[in-house]
Amino acid sequence: MVGIIEEQHPDRARLFMQWKEMRWPVLVDSLNRLGVDAVPITLAIDEYGIIRMVNPERGEIEEKFLNRTFEKPASLPPVADVAPDLDALKKATQQGTAENWSAYANALVEWGGPERAAEAIQAYEQALHLQPNSGPLHFRLGVAYRKRYDSTFGQAGDFQKAVQEWSAALDVDPNQYIWRRRIQQYGPRLDKPYSFYVWVITARKDIAARGDVPVPISVEPGGAEFAQSEKSFAPASISVNEPDPQGRILRDAGQFIKVETVIVPNTRAQQVSERVHVVFRPNPANKTHWNNEAGEFVFWVSAPSGWNVSQQLITIPSLSQAVSTEPRELEFEVKGPARNDTPTETLQAYALYYVCEDVNGVCMYRRQDVPITIAPRETRR
Amino acid sequence: MMNWFWITTTLAVVGTTGILYFLQAESVSAQSADLADFREGQVFPTMVFPSLDGSRPGSVTDFRGKKLILHIFASW
């Protein structure tokens, strides 16, 4: 038994396999180089590497595969068992073909580590310049952006660019469910077929209960990845009070806290909902940190006429230590009018927080306005 | 995750080889792959992938000489 995993974060599958006590080798195809458009797929492959059964029926595997003798073919492709030579692939890009740029980019993502993500992104862009309508290239560029976002080499905009590239790929081939799932993983609940990673919670409990230590995963699933599917949009309660209705709190224009907003659309064109991811990061340039002893972080979003939001008021509890510099992330969902007559809309939102900067030793309570701009889908690229 | 529910409930041990065999009867559904991509009689692609455990590059060709059940999947 051998597996090939088709996930953005393959190490989550390690946890899954530990949970289910599966002990067989697994290869990683985060880039979907195999080109499968859905999972699972089960193949029976003979001793010569030839596919003998595709998604076989239960009960026929022994008779039609295990107990059967297959004829050795006259010739077979050579065995490949080494990682690609990045230098040779880079040299091959001098030929200027999309295939060569793509092969180099793929190898950089799979073997170059996050420190070479920028090179991979540039190589995919070169390939896309030559083949602008290639769904696989758009998808893989999105994978590279999201991998960089999840690393210490992440740059502002990486996550949104990943979503845009995955959306571009899906526009090319709307029947590619691996690509669709990559967007839905981060998207609104109305678009989810199921919760993608809620099993992680159960898995860790079960593994710990049997006395084992759950294997670590490099990127913890976020709210969207835990979120369950829903059939209808659940709007926010109207009973909460706006924390700064008159806008009297002094503004932070971004000098203390940097904000990144990512809009993940519903992949179904007839559905009008999106999931909004907002990340707040203390600015290291002036040594800003959260002042946890002073109070909680609060976020408010207003819904314009015809729009609904899943939550108007979001509070992020402070960590127990007096100061910290962790990114603070929140997610919520919005639902607007029907797609065809929905112009670009900006939802007014803001965050209120206590921070200190260590250059001048000043602590303060600040508000940062965070406009949430929802564009019609066709204008997002 | 729904995929795995069905897989784990249909886990079976096949023959005397000790091979754990997964079969998901519901796998061929609206979400199913374009099976034209994998046809009986076709050589499985020889491409090399990273291993999940990070041990070494891996390929299906590593298992030449043995019969193999290959499961392409995701944990969600």
N-to-C order of helices and strands of chain B: HEEE
User: Beta-strand percentage of chain B?
Assistant: 15-25%
SSE run of chain A: EHEEEHHHHHHHHHEEEEEEEEEEEE
The helix content of chain B, as a percent range, equals: 10-25%
Number of helices of chain A: 10
Low-confidence regions of chain B: 1-36
Supply the helix-strand structural class of chain A.
alpha+beta
Mean pLDDT of chain B: 65
First and last CA, distance of chain A: 42 Å
Helix/strand-derived class of chain B? Answer: alpha+beta
Strand content of chain A is: 15-25%
The pLDDT mean of chain A sits at 93
Would you give an account of this structure?
The complex is a heterodimer of chains A (381) and B (76). Chain A is built from ten helices and 16 strands. Chain A has helices at residues 11-19, 61-66, 86-92, 98-111, 117-130, 135-149, 158-172, 177-184, 199-209, 223-226, and strands spanning 2-5, 26-28, 41-45, 51-54, 257-265, 273-282, 288-291, 297-301, 308-309, 313-316, 323-324, 328-335, 345-347, 349-357, 362-369, 372-374. In chain A, strands 7, 8, 10, 11, 14 and 15 form a six-stranded antiparallel β-sheet that branches. In chain A, a hairpin with a 5-residue loop joins strand 3 and strand 4. Chain B has 76 residues and is an alpha+beta fold. Chain B has one helix at 2-9, and strands spanning 12-14, 19-21, 68-73. In chain B, strand 1 and strand 2 form a beta hairpin. The interface between A and B is large, with 77 and 62 residues. Strand 1 (2-5) of chain A pairs parallel with strand 3 of chain B, so a sheet runs across the interface.
